[in-house]
């Protein structure tokens, strides 16, 4: 059976007969409207026996006439053939050929073998029924044209009309309602996505606009408020608020100097004034401060150590027996550390000056009251020890080791009370080791414990050892420790158990406290709390009349 005819029968129709030019034009218009390129479809024109005109000179046994597959005789009035030499009246029965419509060549008919696969076909559709979609796996696209004599339906085996699969696995065409629902759902989804996209874009634009407004406000604020101070560091002071008297040098070290300065209390950072005591101290000193700065020749390592000292003092906090930080200038150079001003200088110089005065006296009883303030009594010495122990007790509780405890680093205020200063070597004890391992450098070896001399191990207990040496300095009014010990023998003699002898003017109880600070096993040394209590007991036991010391100028530690 001819493929085109069979295919049309599957759909319940048959190959059409083109009975009028109008019908031929409709087919060509359909092709032209769809813009089908190089697409061919059969229309069922074939060669059949019989009906040959009598005037034909051909062999009648091999000739036939063109006809449509529905049996209607072909009328060549309505069909244009590609080859003008084609005999349109008869055809050859021995050739398995038919004619197809070529949409790519302006709708002209073209001779082809009709056994080829049919990409597209055209059938005449009965009025009573249409194509059964269950009979094909490729649902055809339909386009209907109607005239007074017939109705046509075209079907393409490559069509893309929407389908759905039924429960028995077959495809069916979607209904109009289903198509409307699917399209509506798609429109809703696209609309929601567009709204969400617009929302987030607007939100982002608004956020950027707000940020731009904030930045502009900050710029205007900074320009209109040049004196406003907005800082992250609560200790920072503007340089113009710090006055330094470079003619009044209070101290000098290897990499820096300390000068007398002045900062009005109103310019001290509020968070830096931790207590009323600190604020009152500043006011009592008439707003004078001590300003520590680096030498111009200091290198980067010295600057780093100076910054370390500033940061340590910030962390330590306020205590009345410490030289407290009041502020700093670190945002610009030179770096400045602003601390409390102690008008009587360091304890070592104070004791040595008083000692020189006292050694000149033969009998202090005859001195006037105005001169007695230059005399240091034994009770004052004990008070110095208690005050220093109190400050060291606070440092130990805070987890710090001073590492440079000596009389030269103890400052004396206007009331002749001691304050621990110079935190350049002070370090925070990390973890549970309760000791700090130094990498060497400038260290006060005469004040160091054996474990610090040998392995650079520093701890609260090594500070206790140093405090014992400070007690020696106090009782001798600035005497030199280990005066007759060669430096190379110091560690060996200490490890062997040898200690400094008791000074001539030292009581037994006072010397016992010194020896308790110098025990070889660090953990067996006294704590600063116990030291403070023992010195306090010595103070209670001392005579209230014993207000002066009789010094021996020939002592070797002088």
Automatic annotation (TrEMBL):
GO terms for cellular component: plasma membrane; receptor complex. The chain crosses the membrane at residues 179-201. InterPro entries: C-type_lectin-like, C-type_lectin-like/link_sf, CTDL_fold, Kinase-like_dom_sf, Prot_kinase_dom, RTK, Ser-Thr/Tyr_kinase_cat_dom, Tyr_kinase_AS. The keyword Calcium does not apply. The keyword Transmembrane applies. Residues 120-169 are annotated as: Disordered. One of its GO terms (biological process) is cell surface receptor protein tyrosine kinase signaling pathway. Residues 3-113 form the C-type lectin domain. Residues 244-549 form the Protein kinase domain. It comes from the Eukaryota. Keywords: Membrane, Transmembrane, Transmembrane helix. GO terms for molecular function: ATP binding; transmembrane receptor protein tyrosine kinase activity. This is C-type lectin. It comes from Pristionchus entomophagus. The lineage of its organism: Eukaryota, Metazoa, Ecdysozoa, Nematoda, Chromadorea.
């Amino acid at each position: 059976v001819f493929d085109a005819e069979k295919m049309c029968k599957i759909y319940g129709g048959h190959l059409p007969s083109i009975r009028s030019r109008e019908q031929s034009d409709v087919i060509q218009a359909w092709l032209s409207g769809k813009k089908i390129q190089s697409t061919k479809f059969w229309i069922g024109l074939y060669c059949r026996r019989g009906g040959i005109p009598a005037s034909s000179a051909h062999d009648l046994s091999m000739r036939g006439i063109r006809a449509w597959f529905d049996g209607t005789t072909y009328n060549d009035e309505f069909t244009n053939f590609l080859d003008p030499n084609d005999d349109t009246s008869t055809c050859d029965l021995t050739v398995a050929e038919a004619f197809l419509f070529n949409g790519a060549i302006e709708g002209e008919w073209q001779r082809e073998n009709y056994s080829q696969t049919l990409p597209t076909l055209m059938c005449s559709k009965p009025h009573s029924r249409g194509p059964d979609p269950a009979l094909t796996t490729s649902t055809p696209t339909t386009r209907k044209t109607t005239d007074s004599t017939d109705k046509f339906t075209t079907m393409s085996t490559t069509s893309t009309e929407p389908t759905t699969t039924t429960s028995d696995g077959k495809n069916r065409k979607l209904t109009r309602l289903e198509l409307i629902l699917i399209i509506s759902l798609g429109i809703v989804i696209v609309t929601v996505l567009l709204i969400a996209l617009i929302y987030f874009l607007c939100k982002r634009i608004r956020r950027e606009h707000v940020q731009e407004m904030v930045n502009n406000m900050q710029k205007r604020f900074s320009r209109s408020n040049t004196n406003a101070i907005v800082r992250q560091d609560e200790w920072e002071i503007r340089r113009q608020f710090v006055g330094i008297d470079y003619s009044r040098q209070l101290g000098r070290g290897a990499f820096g100097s300390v000068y007398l300065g002045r900062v009005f209390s109103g310019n001290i950072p509020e968070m830096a004034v931790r207590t009323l005591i600190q604020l009152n101290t500043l006011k009592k000193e008439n707003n004078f401060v001590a300003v520590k700065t680096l030498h111009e020749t200091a290198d980067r390592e010295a600057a780093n150590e100076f910054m370390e000292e500033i940061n340590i003092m910030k962390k330590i906090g306020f205590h009345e027996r410490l030289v407290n930080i009041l502020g700093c200038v670190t945002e610009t150079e030179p770096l400045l550390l602003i601390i409390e001003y102690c008008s009587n200088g360091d304890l070592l110089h104070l004791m040595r000056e008083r000692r020189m005065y006292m050694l000149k006296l033969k009998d202090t009883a005859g001195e006037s009251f105005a001169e007695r303030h230059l005399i240091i009594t034994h009770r004052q010495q004990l008070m110095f020890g208690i005050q220093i122990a109190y400050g060291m007790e606070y440092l130990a509780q805070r987890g710090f080791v001073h590492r440079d405890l000596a009389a030269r680093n103890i400052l004396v205020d206007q009331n002749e009370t001691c304050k621990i200063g110079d935190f350049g070597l002070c370090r925070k004890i990390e973890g549970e080791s309760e000791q700090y391992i130094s990498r060497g450098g400038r260290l006060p070896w005469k004040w160091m414990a054996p474990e610090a001399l040998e392995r650079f191990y520093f701890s609260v207990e090594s500070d206790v050892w140093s405090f014992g040496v400070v007690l020696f300095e106090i009782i001798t009014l600035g005497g030199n420790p280990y005066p007759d010990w060669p430096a190379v023998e110091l560690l060996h003699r200490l490890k062997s158990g040898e200690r400094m002898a008791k000074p001539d003017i030292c009581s037994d109880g006072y010397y016992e406290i010194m020896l308790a600070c110098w025990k070889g096993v660090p953990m067996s040394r006294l704590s600063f709390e116990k030291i403070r209590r023992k010195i306090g007991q010595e103070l209670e036991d001392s005579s209230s009349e014993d207000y002066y010391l009789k010094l021996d100028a020939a002592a070797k530690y002088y």
